[in-house]
Amino acid sequence: MEYSSDDIAAARSLQFATFIYASMVTIWIYDYACSLDEEWTFLLRSRWSKIKGLYIVTRYLPSILLTANLCLNLTSNDSENPVKCWVLANIDSGVGVASVIFSECFFILRTYVLWNKNRILLTAMMSAFFTFLIASFSIAFTTTVPAAYATSAIPGIAGCYQSSTSFRLFIPFLLLSMFQLGLMMLTLIRAIQNWRINPSRLYVVLVKHNIFYYTCGFLFSMVNIFTSLLLQYAYHTMLYDFQIMILAILATRMHRHLWQINRHTHGSGTLVHIPMSNMSSVNSTA
């Protein structure tokens, strides 16, 4: 039986996407295994707080995201599976947006602290962030309808993809990139203002973490904007969840690193606490 060029291209995109998602699972497991000692030291020796709860959710939410992705890409190609694809895609979209929310919350709070808990700035950041969230949820769930999903016409090719690409899918990444660029500029402005008068290690690490996180997020968003607009089949969405996973890994690794620095600075007691609300001390440490 002969297949059209579209069928072959779609099948290749599904195989490549499955490889990408399997690689993502491998990266997440490898990262967790490499940081297992640090992870449990932090979980057992740090005090319970809202920030620790935020850390746990941010750290382990990508595992649900990756599981949904693997199920989505291992779905057999029969006539009933577009509905299954739609359900899994909605789970993937919801968990993905939630993961971004929790990852960004770390750095919204950090930027807030760097600016000496300026409430006007916090209100502006939260307003911009809620705009991003409303747009993301609206677009994610209005573009994932059962009819938009298809499986490969070639037997033995698992997975499903959006047969009708919506150009609106790039909008959440455009908004996220603008939001992260704005936060990066705020961090740079504050760093320039305070760099010479505040040489404390905690402050320097905080600024470097913020800039690195925002830069990675901005670059990933730019890549996803171009893939959304220029690629078809399974190609145009395969890096969405990769960005979400990397942002979650960066946010949790950076928080552990900051906790370790604070722990070494104040001694190695049994329990060490670094509440985000008290991090303003980095702005006054000589």
Return the string of H and E elements.
HHHHHEEHHH
Instruction: Provide the β-strand percentage band.
Output: under 5%
Q: Average pLDDT value?
A: 77
Low-confidence runs (pLDDT<50, min 5 residues)? 268-286
Summarize the main sheet. Answer: 2 strands, antiparallel
Coarse morphology: globular
Q: Pairing-aware structural class of the strands and helices?
A: mainly alpha
Task: For the largest sheet, list the strands in their spatial order.
Answer: 1-2
Q: How many angstroms separate the termini? A: 75 Å
Rounded Rg: 21 Å
**Helix share, percent:** over 70%
Question: How would you describe this protein?
Answer:
This protein has 286 residues and is mainly alpha-helical. It has 8 helices and 2 strands. It has helices at 5-34, 36-45, 50-73, 81-114, 119-142, 171-194, 201-230, 240-265; strands at residues 149-151, 160-162. It has a two-stranded antiparallel sheet. Helix 1 packs antiparallel against helix 3 (50-73) and helix 4 (81-114) packs parallel to helix 6. The longest helix is centred in the middle third of the chain and has 34 residues, at 81-114.
Q: How are the SSEs ordered, and which strands pair?
A:
Elements lengths: L4 H30 L1 H10 L4 H24 L7 H34 L4 H24 L6 E3 L8 E3 L8 H24 L6 H30 L9 H26 L21
Helix pairs in contact: 1-3, 3-4, 3-8, 4-5, 4-6, 4-7, 4-8, 5-6, 6-7, 7-8
In short:
The chain is an all-alpha fold. It has helices at 5-34, 36-45, 50-73, 81-114, 119-142, 171-194, 201-230, 240-265, and strands at residues 149-151, 160-162. Strand 1 and strand 2 form a beta hairpin.
